[in-house]
Amino acid sequence: EIVLTQSPGTLSLSPGDRATLSCRASQTLTSGYLAWYQQKPGQAPRLLIYDASTRATAIPDRFSGSGSGTDFTLTISRLEPEDIAVYYCQHYGSSRQTFGQGTRVEIK
Amino acid sequence: QVQLMQSGAVVRKPGASVKVSCKASGYTFTSYYMHWVRQAPGQGLEWMGIINPRGGGTSHAQNFQDRITMARDTSTSTVYMELYSLRSEDTAVYYCARGGIYSGNYSPFDYWGQGTLVSVSS
């Protein structure tokens, strides 16, 4: 089973800062089937990025995804107050789906 | 518009079972796989299993061996997840989520239900 490790655990930034979130896989994701989700308190997760770098419908262009192999990154180019949330990566390219443990983004 | 409407919060005693429903609307029910994901209080997301609404085939995570059943009713566009032999560690919010970007079983989850809180307590 592929294990996804996210870092850092918590990111404290100011509005307008650039946020860089990392997701490392225990094995190469040859398919590139890596997604990112945003979850705000009391809400269901929302799909942001899939196939490592494709923005989902209606996602602002300040969110971008990159990476391949075992190392993937979610970047928020200019942090907005409404971006405060926990972000999860997910590998969906096998019969056993896996999520990372999450990165919390907070306002400094 | 696509909607996934789940059943309401429940409380169960240890050893009991729980059945959660997820009614889909706004799209062709049999065209996309449905997943179940849970989240314990303050914890991350845990994938539980997948069901193919067209044929009813299922697959689940090893953690739930022999304790989970998933089913669907195409006449009402509803999927069900039943978890048996509940223990306190099963206290969580349970979500259904559509694997809707691609029609196969390898797809990210584009729509989620609102979640169902299952509390297990004596």
Q: In a nutshell, what does this entry contain?
A:
The complex is a heterodimer of chains A (108) and B (122). Chain A is mainly β. Helix content of chain A is 0%, strand content 56%.
Structural class of chain A: mainly beta
| pLDDT averaged residue by residue of chain B | 96
Q: Tell me the span between the first and last alpha carbons of chain B.
A: 40 Å
Q: If helices are DSSP runs of H or I spanning 4 or more residues, what is the number of helices of chain B?
A: 0
- Main sheet overview of chain B: 7 strands, mixed
Counted beta strands of chain B: 11
Helicity of chain B, as a percent range: under 10%
Radius of gyration of chain A: 13 Å
Strand content of chain A: over 45%
What is the H-and-E element order of chain B?
Answer: EEEEEEEEEEE
| Average pLDDT reading of chain A | 95
Described by the principal axes of the CA atoms, the overall outline of chain A is globular
Describe this structure in words.
The complex is a heterodimer of chains A (108) and B (122). Helices cover 0% and strands 56% of the residues of chain A. Chain A has strands at residues 4-7, 10-13, 19-29, 34-39, 46-50, 54-55, 63-76, 85-91, 98-99, 103-107. In chain A, a hairpin with a 6-residue loop joins strand 4 (34-39) and strand 5. Chain B is an all-beta fold and 122 residues long. In chain B, 0% of the residues lie in helices and 48% in strands. In chain B, the strands form 2 sheets. In chain B, strands 2, 4, 5, 6, 9, 10 and 11 form a 7-stranded mixed beta sheet that branches. Chain B has a 4-stranded antiparallel beta sheet with strand order 1-3-8-7, with no helix packed on it. In chain B, strand 7 (68-73) and strand 8 form a beta hairpin. Chains A and B meet through strand 4, strand 5 and strand 9 of A and strand 5 and strand 9 of B.
